[in-house]
Amino acid sequence: MNMHLVFIPFLTILLLSSKYLQSSTPKYPYDPKLITEQSEINFAITDKRGILSAEGTVYFISPTEESTIVACRDKKFLWKVNAASQCGSASVHQAVRYLKLTSTKLEVIYGKHSFLTIKLSTGQVTCQGSD
């Protein structure tokens, strides 16, 4: 019986510590392990899902909508763009395939060969067409 008395307080402390650690872990709308600081992502050759800019903004593909790009800073959404709905559905699969971050825009390839750019500051889309 003494063993149970000693063991129960240990479990109580362990459970309280776990609960404390869980509540202090920040929640993001993306998985931080899948974000890169590189300026380009080709989704065919990596499991990364977004780019972290030098200014701290994360540009990532929505985990539930493969054709949607989201900009987020400090856990707040700045803008959200669905490539297919903004520039017309791609003739083949609509998922974003490639992102390239420049100083003022995000270059996007989606579908088979459809192109668009997004102005970083506003989320304004310029459709570039398809080949």
Task: Report on this structure.
- With 131 residues, the chain is α+β, with helices and mostly antiparallel strands.
- The protein is 21% helix and 37% strand.
- It is built from 2 helices and 10 strands; from the N terminus they run αββββββαββββ.
- It has helices at residues 2-24, 83-87, and strands spanning 35-36, 40-42, 50-52, 58-61, 68-73, 76-82, 96-101, 105-110, 114-119, 125-130.
- The strands form 2 sheets. It has a 5-stranded mixed β-sheet.
- It is globular.
- The termini are far apart.
- The model is unreliable at 1-24 (pLDDT under 50).
What's a concise summary of this model?
The protein has 131 residues and is of the alpha+beta class.
Distinctive features:
alpha+beta; 2 helices; five-stranded mixed sheet; 131 residues; 21% helix; five-stranded antiparallel sheet; single chain
Compute the CA-based radius of gyration. 21 Å
Shape: globular
The overall pLDDT average reads 81
Distance between the termini: 76 Å
Got a strand count?
Answer: 10
Q: Estimate what percentage of residues fall within beta strands.
A: 35-45%
Reconstruct the topology from this structure:
Blueprint: H1 2-24, E1 35-36, E2 40-42, E3 50-52, E4 58-61, E5 68-73, E6 76-82, H2 83-87, E7 96-101, E8 105-110, E9 114-119, E10 125-130
Parallel strand pairs: 1-3
Antiparallel strand pairs: 2-7, 3-4, 4-5, 5-6, 7-8, 8-9, 9-10
